[in-house]
Every structure is written in C-alpha cells, then in structure tokens.
Amino acid sequence: MRPCMTKGILGLLAELITKEIDNLNQLEETTLNSDLSQGYALKELTELLILPLTAHSALVFRVRAEGADGAADSPTDHPFCAGVQGYALKELTELLISFLELESVRSRHKAPLLATVLHGYLSLRRLVIQRTKLVDETQERLLMLLEDITSGTEAETRQFMAICVETVAKYGRSDVRTPVFIFERLCSIIEPELNELGPFLLSLEKDPQQEDFLQGRMVGNPYPSTDPGMGPLMRDVKNRICRDCELVALLEDDTGMELLVNNKIISLDLPVKEVYRKVWLPSASSDTEPMRIVYRMRGLLGDATEEFIESLETKTDTDRDDEETYRMANVMSDCGGLQELLRRMEYIEDLQRSRPLLTVLLRLTGLCIKTRQNRAALTRPELRAVAVMLRLLALCLKADPELVAGPPGGPTVTQQLLQIMAVVLAEATSLDLDEYRRFASTCGSVEQIRLLLSHVHMAQSKGAGALLQQLMRVLPFLTFGSEEKMRLLIDHFQPVLDFDEFDASQPAESAALLESLCALTAGIETNCMGNQLKDMFVAAGVVERALTYLRQHAPPGKKALLNTNDEQWKSFLSRPALSYALRILAGLATKHEPTQLAVAAESIPIIHRLEQVSSDQHVGSLAENLLEALRTNRQVGAVGSWGRAQMWGGYCEQYSLEKKRMAMAMRKHQLDALGMRANDKGQVAIKSSVLRQLDDISDEQGLTCVICREGYRFQPTKVLGIYTFTKRCPLDDAEPKQRKTMGYSTVTHFNLVHVDCHMAAVRLARARDEWESAALQNANTRCNGLLPLWGPQVAESAFAHCLARHNTYLQESTGHRDVGYQTTVHDLKLLLLRFAQERSFSDDSGGGGPQSNIYIVPHLMHMALYVINSTRIGQRELKNVTTQLGAASDRWVETSFEPDGPLFWMAMAPLVLAPDGWRQLRLRCLARLLVLAQARHTRPGGGRALTERQPLPWAVYRPWAIFWGLVDGLYTMVLSRAAPEAGGADWCAALAEYIRHHDQALLEACDRLLRHYQQELLPAASLAEMLDVLGVLAEAGDPDTFLREALQQVP
Which residue numbers delimit the E3 ubiquitin ligase UBR4 C-terminal domain (predicted)? Predict the structure, then answer.
C-alpha cells in the first residue's frame, strides 16, 4: 500500500474527481438536457475497483494511461456508451473513500484532500439540469466523507475553517446558494446547535377554577405541534384557543388570557418549541408526554402568584465567558474570513434573491463579534465594515417588512444588522483619537446619515419601537468625529424643541421625534466622543430650552416639600412636554459636566420637588434619574448625603427639617388614634384605659393551627390534626420470608391544622390535589394523612369521625386494608427504630427532622390507646405484653426474626404496662435485645439457636440498646406524670387522658427525651456507658458479665 501512496494515487483521484465535476458544471451552463453517455472517459477507472488491492502498482499505471489518452476515444464509439450521467464520478468517489477508510491513510492524507471534497460537494449542490440519481448519491457520499474528515482535533477544525473561507472566495458574486452552506457550516462549528426538536403534543386545558366563567373546551386534546395555530409563538396557541372556544373578545387582547406551563405563566412572545424544550421537558416524566398548557382569564380570581417566564435565557447562558465559548470564531479574523463576510455583503443587491445568504451572514457575523479579537479587526479602516453595513442597512430599511422579518419571536434582519453595527461602533470608541478618526472616515457620508434620519420618521409611523431604539443607538456613533454629521443630527430635532408649542398642539409626529431624541440622548457614549456631541447639543441651546421651560412653568415656592393638591402644580405636572424635557436633560447630563453645571445653577429645587411626584407619566422617577446624573459631578454634589447642598445652600437642610416635622406630626396622629402618646424623650406610653385591659389577654399556648394560628384556648371544640406522610413498607426487614409481612411507616414535620381549616383550604384550591394543597401549609413537605388529636373539649364524635377519615387516608396511601391498633404499634416501633438506627426522616417527605418526629410519638400512642380503651381490651394486651416480654429464653432467638417479636412488644409496653411493671422487666428486655442483635448479625437468614456466643463489637448492639433506651426514656421522661399509682386497665385510661389534656407538657417532655437521645444515648461508646447514662448500671452489675450471661442462657 505504501508505494501506491507515495506515487500519488490519492492526488490523482482527487484531480480526476475535480475534472469530472468541472465537466458537469460546464454541461450545466451550456446544455439544456442531461447527456446520459457522459462519463465514458473514466469508464476504465471504474472497472479498476474490481481489481485486488495488491495490484495497486498496475492500477496506477492504467489510471495514468487512461487519464492521458482516454479523452481521444469517442463516448459513442465505445460499448460503455449506455452508462448513466455521474456513474464514473460516483465510482471515483467510492474508490477515494475506500482508501480513506484506512486509518493510516486518512490521518496522513485527509488534510490535502479536504479542499477537493468540499469543492466537489458544493459544486454538486448547484447542479439542476445535470442532476441524476447517481449525482445525488455522489453528493451524499461526499457529504459523509466531509463529515468524517473534518471531525478531529481543534487544530484540524481550525484548518477546515480556513479551507472553507478559501473555498467560498472561489465562487462569484452571482452565486448566492453555495456560500450559504459554507457559512452555515462555520456557524455550527463556532456555536454547535441543539438537536432539532421533532413534532410533539400539546394538551390545552381550562383552569378548573374558572369552569363557570370560560365557555367551551378544547376537545381535540392532545394536539400535534404541527397543527395550524399551535405555534410558532405562544400567542398563536392563545389565539387558537380563543377561536375554538369562541372567546372572540380575547382574540386581539394579549392581556386578557394567561397560559401556564408547569405552573408558570408563560409570555406570549416566547416560541412554543423553546417553551417545550426548556420549561416542560426538564420536569416531564417522558419525552412523549404532551405539554400541558392551562389557560385562564387574568385576574379573575385575584392576582397571580405563579412565576412569570418572560425570557428563556438561563443564568448559565448569560454568565458564560464569550471569549472561551466562541474562541473558534477568532479563526475568521486570522484567515481572512471577516473580509469574505463583508465582501459577500457588498455583493448583495436583491434582498429577495439573497435572503438566505443575508440571514446566515448576519448570524455568522453576530457570532464573530462575540470575541474581542474579531471586534477589533472589524474596526480596521481598510475593511470598511461600517460602510458596507450601512449600504446593506439602507436596502433593509427600504425593503418590504415581510422580506426582512426575523424568526418567530426574534429580531428582524434589520434589527440584527443594527445590533452588529452597534457592537462594532462601541468597540471603536476604545481606539486612540487618531485611529478613531481614520475609522470614522469610513462610517458613511452625510447623505447616508440624512437617509437614516428620514427612516426615523418611517419607523415612527409604522410603530416599530424596537427598530427606532436601535436606530437611535447607532446614529450618534455614526456622527462621532465629524462636526458636519453631528450638526445635521442636532438640526434634525430642532423643530420639535419648542416645548410650549408642543404643549399647545401635541402633534403625533412631534411626539415621535421627541421620543426619538430622548432615546438618542440616553444612548450617547460617556467618553470624549460622546461628550463632543453633547457639547454641540449645549451649544445649540437644547439644554437651555429645556431648563427655561422648567423655570417658566414651575410654580414659585420656598417650601422644600411639594403640595400636590396645589392647582398650579397640578397644571404644571399635566404638561405633556414635561417628561420629555426631564428625559433629555437626564441623558445629556450623564457624565457631562457643562450640562450638569447648567442644570444645577438654578433648577435643582424645581427638580427636587418634582422628585416627590407620583404620576402616570412617571415624572417623579424621571426627576430622580436627573438628580442621580448630577450626583456624579463633585462640584454639584460636594456636601451631604443628597450631594447637592453646595449648589443651593441650605435647601437640603430645609428639606430634612420639613420632612422631620411632617413625620412627627403623622406619628402623633397615629399614636392618638391608637390611644397612645409620646413624651419629650420619644418614649411611647399607653393613655387609653381600654388598651390597658389588653394586658389580660395572653397568647395562645401549646398546639396551634398553621392556617388560623389558633389552638385550644380560642377554638376549644375544633379538632386539630397533624400532617403526616405514611409509606408502605415491611414490618421487619429481618423477617426470614421471601414475601415479608407489609405494614406502613409514618413521619411528620409536625405542622398542625384544624381539620375544618384544612378542608376549607382544599375547597379554595380546586385546581390542586388535596395533598398538593396541604403541602403548602406543611412547609412544602409531602403529606398524605391528617392524624387527629382529641383535645380536652373536643367532642368524641368529632374526634372519631376525623380518626375514621385518617384511617381512610392510610388505606388510600398504603393499600393496607386492616388498619388497627396493632398496625399503629408497628408504626410506632418503626419510628423508634428510625431514631435508633439514625435513619433520615425526610428522604420521602422532603421535610421534618428528629424534633418533629419525637413530638408525634405520644399522639401515635394515643391513637392506639383510643381503640384499646374503646374495645376494652387493655387487660388482654397487658397479659400479652407481660407474657411475651417475660417469655422463657429458649424462644428468644427464634422470635428475634418475627415482626411481632420483642421490638413490637416493647413498643406496646408503654401503652398498657405501668411504669412499675416496666421497671421489673426492663433488664430482661435489654438482655433480649442483645440476643436479638447477636442473632441477626450472626444468622441473618433466621434460626432457632445462636451460632456464635462470643461478644461482638459494640456497634452491633448499639442500635438495639438505643431502642431500649428510648422506650425507657418514654417511661422516665414523658409518661412519668401520667398516673404513677395506676396499673393494668387503669393505666391505659389514665395515660389516654393525660395525653389528651397535657399537650404543652408533652412537647416539653419530648424535648427532654430528644436531648437525652442526642447528648447521652448516641455518644455512648460501650454497653457500660449506655447502662450508666440510663441509671441501671448498679442494677445490671458488670456489663460484660451481663452480656455474656444473656448470650449463654439461649440455645
């Protein structure tokens, strides 16, 4: 293979491919039909493909011979004359591709072949008359080859970009199709495009809360995005809804209807595809799920609280480093690409024919100016960049608006061009003065400035506000450095600077010109070039006219504070020209000392009074902007926080004193209304006897509703409930069965609510699910249950009804149909195990911690106690607890793996077993849990006997010892005051009554238990330390002996 490569077979193939393509191009230009016999001259070359690759030396010889002599034969004299146009070209291409499939050949020779492949592909794209199926196939193969050989390192990509620029320069000015592909390719390299979205579905749904107000319904859900009226903008979707539902009044009103996606209000100016991509897809369950759009009347049920999406630019998009992101664009200035872009812009004469080319030129130029290197290159006078764009701008301004329309929701072609010009012109202002003057000499003539000013009137008449703003942004730059241009610009606005005449007639044309002048003055750069233009504005009397207008019509007055009820001030504030005068002065005064001094000389008191005005014309804000512009001048703002005392003496002091006097008067008035008074020291005291009676009113103590903030003190008969989250789970993970016994586990954020308040909130939020609405009250924590509390004065019937509702909630959320006191005890057991094993409480619910969940323990106990007491089974369960916890040691290992094992009965104990009974059994219970830990660690699959009796590390026993410590802590810290003398059934009833009547005491006791758990149980590093902190060390004896004896007494 190597000898063939060195003899240049690839170069020869490239030459023959180019020759064949040139032949097709010549036929394209000179004939009106496709000659089916074309390509015979390369017939022998195609036959070479069937030769073995080992015969490459002979192949090269034949290729060279055919290349030299084949043209002498006549296509019609050879039996291959039945060939089809492009056959030889296709086979030549396949032969070239077969060589480049070898990695060693491709890595060495792809760079020299890149220009040939690119030129070939672009030439074939242009064919129309000579296009055949084989030509199409060859074009596709060349494109695939082009993709393959251009996907490499950054250096290879830069080389390809340079070749693209060289290639496009070969095509004449009349070719407006071929450069489009090259420039699009360059755009995709500089800024890789996102994958194109295919068709998707939209589901248009009415807001359920407005069913009674909006007629009709979108019955075709889901709608394909390709349906008429489903884009390109969200406004089109809104109009489709209005037409289908016969909401004619809202069809032309963009403020009457809101569209919501993902519970966010979407601007009607946003493209539907981008909303689907950036708002809907990130949270959709699948890519095929229809985008749900909810429509509703704006303000019908109050002000909206949802987020308003006005722009889809993310923080990442706006904060990225353009120099790094668009670094590949710098190749354009290195290889002459910017010159080629400008040359192609110069070639454009017919916008209709060149529209695709112009669009891609502006996009590529917009990407290039993202980097400083390219911006600096475009300011070089020899490129005449601004002059070229000015000529193109004139064409765009004269063109039909539909011809220069931009993408849906995007800027027009004219606006894109103005944005590019503004960036280049702003960059030029950083040049040295001499360099800028040379640059300014290429920024258009006086006639071009006059032409742009004439288009200002046209933009005003067409209502193109955005275009007008951009024109006013660019115009000052174009005049910098030329007094003639600046004078022309100022003279253009002189006729409308008679503010009194404008107040009298208010012609629409004059208002539009004044609006343009305000935009122009606000956009003048704050550098030496901009100050030169502002100097000319001052010399032309613009500033003096505006100040004279203010001084002549402002009512006289010495008070610093404005009396807005004064008729003279009302008349002054209603003058139409006032806002324009303030805006012009603010624009010219920004960092321009002559204007600042002129304004500060006599007019600051007037402007300062205007600053206090609140009106529809925003006069107060405009006056404030003008004062802020004056603050930057040290001569104007040398003293005081307001920065203007030096210019008007004691005016600021007078203003402050008057404001203070009015504030004190208002304070006295408000205090009198409240029955209070302030003494000389400013201290507030009560002077009303009625207010003194408020001392007897105390705040709500204990449990309170998160909605109405009232508890048992002010709403004693209402049922309070705890928001809970319950999840289906196994009762014991160690159960040695393939299908474990299922139950449920409850956690909470311990937010309480009146059941009535909860139901009322659900009714008001009809658009949301019950628990979605409840999550808002539950600190944005998931919930699916409402555990009721039986308050001291709550009727039993009301509590029982709410408890039945809670059981229904449990059944719905867990699928567990047998909800009783046993499942509640299992729930309590699993909650205590979360503490013992230090597992998170908020993995599933998203909120709630140890404190919230320790608070719910007494109320879970009360839920089970209510059933036990109602069914009078307390004595039976007491017998079961004492029997199970006092069981013989021969069953300890076997029951360690049962869901209803020692953990369950220890969780049941506080409900039915009095503290005395617990003290008698607690060490036996501890020994049993130590055996349970040994058994589960050494025999995870279950069994009847221990396989290892040697004590294990403390970490094995620690969680179970903590569980025992929590149960013991419930007795000693939480329930110790329930009924010390009660026992048996009396304990169940007494405990239920204690929990019912002592909510505040229980909260405090649970806090003590939590501190005990966190500060004493968790830090315990050994069994001895655990027994010590629990106060049973003396009773248990030596801890090591206690552990060994426990392990030895079981089978």
Answer: 218-1031
